């Protein structure tokens, strides 16, 4: 069995991840677990690491019983990575990002302006922003190679570009479509060349909302340990997501000033839509927040309500909050196959339950803080029966209508 000094092995592991351009958040997660392993070995007076040490460490974490399931999985991933390095197994990236080219030339200048405006107006996630930058960089390079400028840009040039795409067609066409529409709106092109790209569809079944029924939501509620500091925080977060349908970003940014205790409402400006919404501060939610503030929240001058459990006690991040919800679902023993298990699934579930209860579409839109009812239609798509109940009765057309004026309707 191979063995080596843990200090050197961990450093080699982290250097390899950095050289392979792993995401900073992934490297940070592995570093945390590997440093905890080093502390464990130091407490045992061990300097040399082999696979048996990792197995003993993992077994002790399991027998403690106070660590969440998803944390155990993360520790397992870090140990597998460490064992691969120990046995000289090549470390590979699971996902390889498409190469991004500089936004140069006339198209590049307009693309850069479009991206800056898109970032301000839509407040996309980092992942979405990278997708847009990559897609438009490929588009601008192709236009430069084909000697296309704004004056001779036409549907033929767009068709050639789309035809060159393979598995990335849908991912690339959406940003390009919006960019072409932007050029038309800015009067840089005479026609709206984005129109044909609206007909390029992809298989989007995986985008259907992941839903959990009332019974499953109750199981999640019951699985939360509400007496500990972390449990009090997680319970308040869970209620805000499941009872009010708040997005993870809005829960993370929630501040004391957003809570109006006199009127029992929550008033905030949504991060994603920049729309101001007002939601009821339900008694159960208010009590959970007060319990966390008084008995669970670390002492901090931060105006943000929900903080990390460990020093330096910074506002909790969106990935961290989704991890909390994921941990609650796993602990409740709920089957998640083919379903997402982050914070957003609770928002989808609330919308569907409101629909089943006969709540009208405008009210659901207002509750979720959508800009318009069309955005909310994705939630209706998972409940055909509810959609039929929302439809209006259409009376049958009498035969006399078709036979009027001698039956000219059929001619």
From TrEMBL:
<dbReference type="GO" id="GO:0006310">
    <property type="term" value="P:DNA recombination"/>
</dbReference>
<protein>
    <submittedName>
        <fullName>Tyrosine-type recombinase/integrase</fullName>
    </submittedName>
</protein>
<dbReference type="InterPro" id="IPR050090">
    <property type="entry name" value="Tyrosine_recombinase_XerCD"/>
</dbReference>
<dbReference type="InterPro" id="IPR002104">
    <property type="entry name" value="Integrase_catalytic"/>
</dbReference>
<dbReference type="InterPro" id="IPR044068">
    <property type="entry name" value="CB"/>
</dbReference>
<keyword id="KW-0233">DNA recombination</keyword>
<keyword id="KW-0238">DNA-binding</keyword>
<dbReference type="Pfam" id="PF00589">
    <property type="entry name" value="Phage_integrase"/>
</dbReference>
<comment type="similarity">
    <text>Belongs to the 'phage' integrase family.</text>
</comment>
<dbReference type="GO" id="GO:0015074">
    <property type="term" value="P:DNA integration"/>
</dbReference>
<dbReference type="InterPro" id="IPR013762">
    <property type="entry name" value="Integrase-like_cat_sf"/>
</dbReference>
<keyword id="KW-0229">DNA integration</keyword>
<feature type="domain" description="Core-binding (CB)">
    <location>
        <begin position="105"/>
        <end position="184"/>
    </location>
</feature>
<dbReference type="GO" id="GO:0003677">
    <property type="term" value="F:DNA binding"/>
</dbReference>
<dbReference type="InterPro" id="IPR011010">
    <property type="entry name" value="DNA_brk_join_enz"/>
</dbReference>
<feature type="domain" description="Tyr recombinase">
    <location>
        <begin position="207"/>
        <end position="392"/>
    </location>
</feature>
């Amino acid at each position: 069995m191979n063995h080596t000094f843990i200090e050197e092995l961990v450093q080699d592991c982290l250097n390899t991840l950095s050289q392979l351009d792993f995401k900073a958040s992934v490297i940070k997660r592995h570093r945390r677990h590997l440093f905890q392993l080093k502390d464990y070995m130091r407490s045992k007076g061990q300097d040399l690491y082999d696979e048996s040490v990792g197995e003993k460490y993992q077994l002790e974490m399991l027998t403690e019983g106070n660590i969440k399931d998803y944390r155990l999985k993360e520790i397992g991933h870090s140990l597998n990575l460490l064992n691969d390095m120990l046995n000289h197994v090549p470390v590979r990236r699971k996902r390889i990002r498409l190469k991004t080219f500089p936004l140069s030339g006339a198209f590049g200048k307009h693309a850069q302006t479009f991206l800056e405006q898109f970032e301000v107006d839509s407040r996309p996630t980092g992942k979405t922003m990278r997708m847009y930058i990559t897609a438009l960089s490929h588009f601008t390079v192709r236009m430069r190679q084909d000697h296309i400028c704004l004056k001779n840009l036409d549907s033929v040039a767009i068709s050639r570009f789309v035809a060159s795409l393979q598995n990335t067609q849908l991912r690339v066409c959406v940003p390009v479509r919006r960019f072409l529409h932007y050029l038309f709106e800015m009067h840089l092109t005479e026609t709206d060349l984005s129109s044909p790209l609206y007909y390029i569809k992809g298989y989007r079944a995986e985008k259907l909302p992941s839903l959990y029924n009332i019974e499953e939501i109750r199981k999640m509620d019951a699985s939360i340990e509400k007496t500990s500091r972390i449990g009090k925080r997680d319970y308040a977060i869970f209620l805000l997501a499941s009872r009010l349908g708040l997005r993870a970003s809005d829960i993370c940014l929630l501040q004391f000033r957003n809570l109006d205790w006199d009127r029992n409402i929550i008033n905030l400006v949504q991060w994603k839509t920049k729309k101001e919404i007002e939601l009821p501060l339900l008694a159960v939610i208010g009590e959970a927040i007060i319990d966390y503030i008084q008995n669970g929240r670390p002492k901090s001058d931060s105006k943000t309500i929900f903080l990390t459990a460990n020093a330096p006690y910074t506002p909790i991040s969106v990935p961290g909050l989704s991890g909390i919800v994921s941990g609650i679902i796993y602990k409740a023993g709920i089957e998640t196959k083919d379903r997402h298990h982050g914070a957003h699934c609770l928002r989808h579930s609330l919308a569907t339950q409101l629909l089943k209860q006969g709540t009208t579409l405008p009210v659901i839109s207002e509750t979720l803080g959508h800009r318009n009812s069309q955005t909310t239609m994705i939630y209706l798509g998972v409940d055909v029966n509810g959609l039929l109940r929302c439809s209006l009765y259409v009376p049958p057309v009498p035969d006399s209508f078709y036979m009027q004026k001698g039956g000219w309707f059929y001619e």
